[in-house]
Amino acid sequence: MIWKRFLLALGLMSYTLSFIERVHLLNETLPLTIQDGWYKEKLPGDMLGFFFNSGKYLVCDTKEKQEPKSWLRTDFIEFNGAKRVFIYIGYTIGKCKSNSKYCKEQFKLYTAQTNKSASSPKPPNGFEEIALANPKNLKDGVPDEKDVIVLNATIKAKMGGFYLALLDQGVCLTLYSIKLVYYVCPERGKYLDLIKFPKTISPAEDIVGSQGQEVHGFCSDSNAKNTTELLGVCTTKGVWKVNSDVRCLCKPGYGYLPTPKAHCAECGHGQYKNSLNNSKCKRCPNGSYSFGRNTMCVCHPGLFRMNKNKYDEPCYALPSGPKSINTTTWNRSSILVSWIPSRDKALAFTVECFMCKNDKDKKCVEPCNSKTIFHPGKSDLKRQVLVSGLKSGSRFKFLVFGVKRLNQKVQKSEWKYSVTFGNTKEG
Hints:
Layout: H1 8-18, E1 21-28, E2 39-42, E3 51-53, E4 56-59, E5 70-73, E6 77-78, E7 84-93, E8 107-114, E9 128-133, E10 149-156, E11 161-168, E12 173-185, E13 195-196, E14 200-201, E15 214-216, E16 218-219, E17 224-226, E18 231-234, E19 240-241, E20 248-250, E21 254-257, E22 263-266, E23 271-272, E24 282-283, E25 288-291, E26 296-299, E27 303-304, E28 316-317, E29 326-329, E30 335-338, E31 348-355, E32 366-367, E33 373-375, E34 384-388, E35 395-403, E36 417-423
Antiparallel strand pairs: 1-12, 2-5, 3-4, 4-12, 5-11, 6-11, 7-10, 7-12, 8-9, 8-11, 12-14, 13-16, 15-18, 17-20, 18-19, 21-22, 23-24, 25-26, 27-28, 29-30, 30-34, 31-32, 31-35, 33-34, 35-36
C-alpha cells in the first residue's frame, strides 16, 4: 500500500514565497495512518521488536540477555517519475542507562530498490544502508513529542520504486513521522517574469546537461519576444536557475505590467513604447499623439520637435510673426519696416521682400531684385529693417517671419509670418 499526498496549502505557500513545489510520496505524521501495516521482523525469543501503539511505531528491547535485532520495513513505494527522493524521519531516542549491556542510542536506515512486480524483499537481503541516526546529548528521562529529532537522507531513483527499513539493535525508539518528498520545478519560477518553463521533475544531480535539468522555455506572452535562447536549469531542490540575459521582452507598443501576473499590455490612447524592453508605456510628450500601433508619438498638425526621431521630446508651435507691423516711405528707393519688439529674447525676425505689379496686386510673387539692400540685415532682426535699392514709385510686399532654433528644423514653407505693404516715392 502506498500513501501519496499533496499538501495543497503548504504547496501554494511554497510556490508563492519561494517558487518551489514539493510532491509527497509519503506523508505520515501523528497519528500514523498506516495502522500497524508495515512488515516487522525480529530475532526469535521474548523480545517485542517494533510494535504499533497510539498512532506511533515503537521499539525498546534494551533488557534482553542477547543483543536485540529487529526490522521495520515500509510497503513498496513508487518513484512516480522522481529522480531523487528526500527522506525526513521524525523520531525520539531514549538515553541508555549505564547498566544496560545491549542498549544503543542509534538506529540505521536501509533501502532496497526494485520494481513493483518483484516480490517484497525481507531485510537485510537486498537492502543497503543509507543513513545512521546517532544523536548526541540526549536528555535523561522519557522523551516526548517536543524532543523529536529529524533524520535526513536521500535516494536516487534507479528502478521503479523502493522500500525503506529501520534496523534496531537495542535502541529505545519512537517513530513520530516519515515524509518522502521529491521536488518539482514549477511551470513558472522566481525571476522568470515573462518566461514559461514546463513543469519539470527535479534531477538527481545538479550537473548541467544531466537528464531533466536543462530545459527549453518560451515566452509566456504572445506580445513578448526573446533575444537569447530560453534555457533554464532545474535544480534538485526545485528551483529554476536562469542567466540574467535569458529573458523575454515586451514588443514595441506594449508595456510591461507585473500584476496580476507579469504580462505585456498594449499601450493605451496617448501612450507609446518604441523599443523592445520590459519598461512601462510612456505618455506622449506635449503636443503629440500615439501612432503606428502606439510605437511612436507624432506631432499634432502645425507642431514640430527639434529632432523628429526623438519621440520622447515635446512638440512646439513655430513662433508667430511680429505684432503691429508698419511701413514708412523713406524716399524714392527706401522703405522702413518696423514692428513692436518681442519680450522673448530668443526670438528674432527675418524679412523677405516682393515687388507688386500694381496697387491692387495682393499676391506680389516677384522677389525684389538682387540690388536690394537690407539694413542692418535680412535676418536676426529685433524691431525694424530699412530696405533700400527699391524701384521708385512702386509697391512692395514684406513678409516678416518670427524665428527661433526650431525654425532651422522645419521647411520655410511652414514658417509663420506677418505681412505688410509699402510704397516708394515717385522719381
